[in-house]
Known about the structure:
The chain is α/β, with parallel strands linked by helices.
Amino acid sequence: MLAKRAESRKVVGILALQGAFVEHQAALEKLAFQYRLEVILVKTPEELARCDALVIPGGESTTIALLARLSGVLDPLREFVRTKPVWGTCAGAILLSQAVENAKKGGQELLGGMSITTARNGWGSQVESFEAALTVDGLQSPDVPFTGVFIRAPVVVKLHPAPEDPPILVVARLSPHLLPPSLASPHHSDEPKIFVALRQGKHFLTTFHPELTDDNRFHEYFIRECVFSQCR
Ligand SMILES: NC(=O)CC[C@H](N)C(=O)O
């Protein structure tokens, strides 16, 4: 019986090369009992091989990619993204993109996985960080707004799924009228810039940092919708 239980556990890894991985670990640990998760930090190809799903934290996308290459985990990550669920937050969202604008000199290695283009630091230099209340239908207690913490956040520039790709679902949008005045520009509700959480098949991205609040509803969403449901 015990062996069976252990078998049915899902191993959820958090890429732990740089950035806010400890905060993701704490948020996922709170769900470990309910969903029978084993939460591990991933720095090596061997640790990655144990995972059923992976979270790539916020931090600095260029640094994460560089450290991934140096530690031999970059190509295994690319392989992982092809078949298993991955959630990228902020810098992790950049890494999950197929293309990126505003990359640092020397370029930016990506993992791909989601058929979108993002732009690094897409809110411009006038504001590096802001918070915005998000109302998200797919979360538990959807009437309770979620505080989105945006720190030098990327923006989604374009969605370009190929016909054979899974469709892209907009999970959360910014309400332009709730943005700080310094950011208020003539956004409209279909401008990709306001898409701040997207799902495509098994993959999920948030341009903000759900792990920096005590609210772990986005973690629960990822586990429920991407790790356990049969999305393709
Ligand atoms: N908070 C973050 O993850 C910032 C992302 C950072 N601007 C990058 O390009 O990687």
